[in-house]
């Protein structure tokens, strides 16, 4: 039998199956033994390129320090390749402009414009904007290389899994509006915002890709349907030959949000002429025609961004974002959106404190509020019993997962908790990169703290009455879960919760407001909140959960805070 | 042969083609020719592209091989692909040599014929390609066929299973995986500084 825990076997499988391999890890684990497989993977990638239609006449096998691996996209004027940066040893996405010396970008002026625009874009640093690494010309080809985002596009996600709930789509749109605001501040227009250009990174973040290269000023040319058949998301003024502005981007974003929540394009047009006719109508499309249950306030926001007259739209992308965030914050009965990054840090601080105090004691328990003197701790009379078990959820089966069990992307996980007195439960996740997420509690879950005594409570439980599960969305190598149980609210954490800062642009706040059903798609293990690179680099962040005892069976006579971890293998 | 005939195995098609079955011949052509032509384009140096038409070369080699089936002893399922692959490579080499001897449109210097890299060499270096070819030569026909079909011609496992007479895609996958492992082993043994 093949042991895919063996790095060599895993590489062989990825080679045989044409799935991505982590060559950095392979070189670390195998040293030069990985080399022949690496060579074979290059040979295979080269041939796949030939077989899947790479035009070897047009596209070089190498471009600067990049080796082209696989074509992942093709537009009217450019191709996007997954490429390998030989110098920095990482995968990147490379956008190569079509056409050699006689191609559309050969004229010095257009190329200079491209370079200027890409340079400006490269200055933008925003969590929802793909990171541009550089732009150059090698031989006949000008191109731009950037962060490789492996995830599916919004277009694919909606096609495969159906539309997002309006609140979720609004949250996505707010993130993208914030991204547009950053681009516009740098003097760049996206020019080609559409669902196919919105990608989901493995950690759940939505990223705006493929910007600034809408070189064509010819509206008709850009109507040519791409391979994915995406219609254009052009604003009416562009049909009149007016220049592309930030307001045109705003319009495209509103159409993208529309698609995200309805699963359809606002304008159903098969030809350029049909689309142009629709664009000439002074009235914006009505969201409630497409989505009768839509909140009128949300419809009003979208329709304002879709105003025929650019001047009637929001004054800026930032204003559009603000309106969306305001709606999210006001909408429904759910509490204010919360800056989850801050929560995660707070929880970790608590968890670490619990352990530090616990080192001197046996068993691993800490008096509640030990680090915060304020409220007098309610004495726990006698101990209580805890049992907590992770399970993988099938259609009608529930498979218990022990320490070291294996999970894979797509697996749905839940946690069964049984306590003999009402208790506050906190569930955290840390992946192989040291990124941590608060999985429970979250305002969107129906289940709140404390959980009831003497009954088995399944977390995360339901959202709006529909059962949900945490979904493994990425290959994390190793998933560590920390389960914290306490008869009392954990004082430091609750205090942090209550004084969280108001949402601001760029903060990963939006997943708290995801309603029914949509959650599995959007979030999951690794999909909630990410620590900033600085926080990730903080000392002791790697494998911080390792300090905790493994989760095992039922434990009786627990006193104070109980903290256990379980490690699930999630091989790359 | 009806289109839904279960007789899809390459060896069976070859047997029929040898007996003059036109549809078997067409099936073989349709199955391999486009992929072989694309594959061959990676083996032709860029400078020779205007002088040698790989599509013609591949088609010619393929048809000649089919006509000459009597001369090929079809022992194992992999012998045909191995033969065609080798024959195409040899033929390209000959064509390139020939092309380099006549004055090309740009007056291609003679020594380019020996040194002009092919796109595949550009992608992986000539040394690596030599080690790869050496390793392939060290394999059995069956193994070589699997590597050729999967890594070079990009066939899916269910097609490979059907072509090589294996019971399932998974069986084809396991066999291919073993063959790839063998290539890697031989390449490792031949690597400068590698295990010997």
UniProtKB/TrEMBL annotation, chain A:
This is Protein kinase. It comes from Eiseniibacteriota bacterium. The keyword Lipoprotein does not apply. The keyword Methyltransferase does not apply. Residues 66-328 form the Protein kinase domain. SUPFAM superfamilies: Protein kinase-like (PK-like). Gene3D superfamilies: Phosphorylase Kinase, domain 1, Transferase(Phosphotransferase) domain 1. InterPro entries: DUF4384, Kinase-like_dom_sf, Prot_kinase_dom. It comes from the Bacteria. Pfam families: DUF4384, Pkinase. One of its GO terms (molecular function) is ATP binding. Keywords: ATP-binding, Kinase, Nucleotide-binding, Transferase.
TrEMBL record, chain B:
Belongs to the sigma-70 factor family. ECF subfamily. PANTHER family: RNA POLYMERASE ECF-TYPE SIGMA FACTO, RNA POLYMERASE SIGMA FACTOR HI_1459-RELATED. Keywords: DNA-binding, Sigma factor, Transcription, Transcription regulation. NCBIfam families: sigma70-ECF. The keyword DNA-binding applies. GO terms for biological process: DNA-templated transcription initiation. Residues 9-164 form the RNA polymerase sigma-70 ECF-like HTH domain. This is RNA polymerase sigma factor. Pfam families: Sigma70_ECF. Coiled coil: none annotated. It comes from Eiseniibacteriota bacterium. InterPro entries: HTH_Sigma70_ECF-like, RNA_pol_sigma-70-like, RNA_pol_sigma-70_dom, RNA_pol_sigma_r2, RNA_pol_sigma_r3/r4-like, WH-like_DNA-bd_sf. GO terms for molecular function: DNA binding; sigma factor activity.
